[in-house]
Amino acid sequence: MDTTEMQRQLRALTDRAEITDLMDRCLRSLDDGVFDEAWARDFHTENVTADMPIGVVHGRAALSAHVQRGMALFERTVHLGDNNVIEIDDGRATVRGAQLSTHVLADDPGNVFVSAGHTETELVRTADGWRISASALRVVWTQGTPPQLPDDLTPAGAAEVH
Q1: How far apart (Å, rounded) are the C-alpha atoms in residues 79 and 36?
Q2: pLDDT grade, residue 151 (50/70/90)?
Q3: Percent of the chain predicted with pLDDT > 70
């Protein structure tokens, strides 16, 4: 194996490790409950697009505000992600995976709402490392009673958030 091939393989392994770490930290951060500007900058590009069960938003500031409002519906949560398939093409990557989310409702702590689905994430390499440029969560099944969503967190109303 020549030096060029070793460098290519090392870069591929390093990229994969960095992407895995970013995805794990981002999902785990949902349970920490801090969705400020630093949170958004640590994980997302400035012009990120996120397609969530509570709507579609564009831009880091809109995402931060939207996630903060959505997560306020829960007293506590546990988010698990697995089965990530990572494909890297130079400075771009895609990650397809599975997500299981358990939520204790803020307005009814005796009620637990669980959702599971598939994730599709696009990432780009930036000067600060890999960042999420687009993400989508497609819920496949739920169990329990979901929270009552305010009008601006429904998929139809959320499209207006920018």
Answers
A1: 19
A2: confident
A3: 94
CA distance 45 to 49: 9
- Do 130 and 19 touch, CB atoms closer than 8 A? yes
Helix (H), strand (E) counts: the chain: 4, 6
CA distances from 37 to 5, 26, 40, 89 (A): 39, 14, 5, 29
CB environment 98-120: b (16+ within 10 A), e (fewer): ebebbbbbeeeeeeebebebebe
* Model-wide pTM > 0.85: yes
Neighbours of 147 (CB within 10 A): 19
The residues facing 78 across adjacent strands are 102
